[in-house]
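Help wanted!
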Amino acid sequence: MVQLYIGLGFLLAAVAPLLHRWMGDRTNLLLVVYPALAALWLISQAPGVIAGNNLVFTADWVPSLGLSLTLMLDGLALMFALLISIVGAFVLLYAGGYLKGNPDMARFHAAFMAFMAAMFGLVLADGLVTLFVFWELTSITSYLLIGFNHQDEKSREAARQSLFVTVGGGLALMAGLVLLGIASGSWSLTDIRSLETDLREHALYTPMLLCLVVGAFTKSAQFPFHFWLPNAMAAPSPVSAYLHSATMVKAGIYLLARLQPDLGDTALWTALLSLGGGVTMLLGAFMAVRYTNIKKLLAYSTIMALGTLTMLLGIGSDEALIAFAVFLVAHSLYKGSLFMVAGILDHETGTQDIQAMGGLRAAMPVTAAAAMLAALSFAGLPPLLGFVGKEAMLKAVLKADAFPLLLAVLAFSAAFLTIAAAAIVALRPFLGTLKATPRTPHEAPLSMLLGPSVLALLSLLLGLFVPLTGPAFSAVVTAVAGAPVEVPLSLWHGVNLPLVLTMSSLLLGIGLYLCWDGVRARLATLTPVTHRGPQAWYYAILRAFVSLAEWQTRVLQNGYMRHYILVMLVTLAALLVNSILIRHAPGLSLAFDVRFHEVMVAATMMLGALAAPMLRSSLGAVVSVGVTGFSIALIFLLFSAPDLAITQLLVETLTVILLVLVLFRLPRFSHLSTRFERIRDGVVAAVVGGLLSLLVLIAWDVKQFTPISQYMIENSVSLAHGRNIVNVILVDYRALDTLGEMFVLSLAAIGVIAMLKLRVPPVRRSTGE
Amino acid sequence: MEPLMAVGIGILYAVAIFLILRRSIVKLVIGFVLLANAANLLIFTTAGMTRDAPPLIADDRLLPAGNVADPLPQAVVLTAIVIAFGVLAFAVVLIRRAYEIVQADDMDQMKDTDT
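Answered by r_m:
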């Protein structure tokens, strides 16, 4: 059933253009029912899942290969699916207002619904192959959505970049999943979870983990693959709010969390994830405050959050996993809300530059309130959920087994930079004096206010009532840890080290906010360094690929047919040498049993062939080919093939006549090629000919199967009533072949007649020589 | 006889390949004829060569007397001979037309689509 519901999402995507024809701009009101129903169903299932009963929906796909469409709903999947459905519903409503009147709305809805369904499939999938298919589907739909404004070149470039990076990572993921399947002997996550053997000690563990981590890091924008995410901000704001903050970029995090119980807690895992995540975290927070474009700033702060989540998975203690779950939910809520606020600001003022905005609180009070509430969670201040998440994160970092001091420094720096970024987003556009903007600002319509307000309020409510959420988060952490974990959550832990760190980072953050303009000017001196970052490597790799393609096209596909043939022949020769000389060194039995007249016929055939390339006149060449052909007819006759002999004689006669009729008007051969070319071609021809001789000798010696013709011989008279077995085969056993042969001949005849009869008047050359 | 035929087949292939690699279209067609013959001989030879035992059945019998040559490769080669001739006829007429238009027997002068 759940499988059908996911299928329904793709069906809705397919019929979205039709729905638009009937319902126009109100289509999204119908489509929003899809995630809303999903959310209701998920909430109704939540008590069972929290009680520890994972739901499994079995469905076969290709049973013979062990592939299934089985879905599994545990705590982790439930959390992701709820975020996807709830944020998805609000973003759909929001997009209705944001893109109102856009002629391409139908296309947006098609890609958006397909993305949503793919995302559901990704987080619910139990089979490795299913997971990979949905993973790639999210990459493709994300490509379509980033490139939504395809008239804009920057949009197209950003879409292509995100596709290359995430699909490139997808290849690594595929390799990793295949290795995982080989190592565990199973293609189902549930089976892998209940495996007796420890995958961490498997010989394939290191390559498998590296591949999987590359896949996850590209999808979730971890350093050094992070650069595509800020560029993806070319997408419309609803897309940024949904794909690039709340859902898709968390797919990599989801994968890592999913594999944590099976592959986590090794030195390699901890080092890769906690250091990679930590570096990404600080880099994201630092880059965020360098930008005045509100969407870029939010994109870099998303990278910060994704880095934090990766780092927490790397630490892997129970505290870290609790922090992971809370931080993830908090981030999805506040970042979805803030992106929608950014979209409202862009939509109503006509600019994305924070410096160009100011004093908007009077014009858009609801937006301002939602932004400030979400930003409080963003900054990690009480009493919002973001505060709980950040306190838990700091606590986990301070107690980390590996690199606690380094990670603490990274986390603290990121924390105060984040507070500054939150203040910049929530205060700069709304406080101060009203600035003139390209459009006169006014409050957004209800459809656009609903999303950011509700998500911001959810941050507040979940924060206030955080002790009540304990069981739900414990279901998530249990799924990630692989063993039951109690989650004691509360807003107030008393005065402890994390709280002190939060307070001091708050002071530093406010300080940075106040002198932001000056600091940014200083940071501009770093521009030459940031310009040589991973994005520059990406373009270098792309350029290298293009040069490689150009080079190999020039070398292998230069437009001369004989050159192609030469390449193929050399390849063939190499393969033949490999298989008959190196791998199966032949043992030849040269049984010479010949009669004199047979040798004479064979010698005539060879001499005729050898004469062909030597003769200067085309008629001479035709004659020598005729000699070869007639000798072959004699060989057929001598070796028990009278039918072949007759056919060969007839055809050879016709061939010679035809060649003579057509060719006798053509000039004598002239030497068109150079001496070098002739020698080169001669060598290739001799090598291939020699190898084929060897092949014939070996093939004749190898008799692996009894010939199937025994049946045809035995039944020729009794079943087919024919006494010439070759004829019986042609017209009876293999009559369809003969029918096909007749068809080919008729086609050739039609072609010949057409070319002889067709007379096109000579066309004057437009460009004379 | 088979080792001798193997050498013959190798020579046929080598000459055919050498001719196909030439710039002259006429040589290419002659190479094609030789290539078809070489392939037919290859099939015929690898199945084993039998003297004086054609796959025929006498009028008063249900089975051939004694061992006969394998009829299946013969049937296959028979089809191949006829098909090769069909293709050759088409190619030869094509050359004739091409020569009428381009007035040259050189493949390198047939790169334009504007003639």
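OP: Thanks! One thing I noticed: The first strand of chain A starts at residue 55 and ends at 57.
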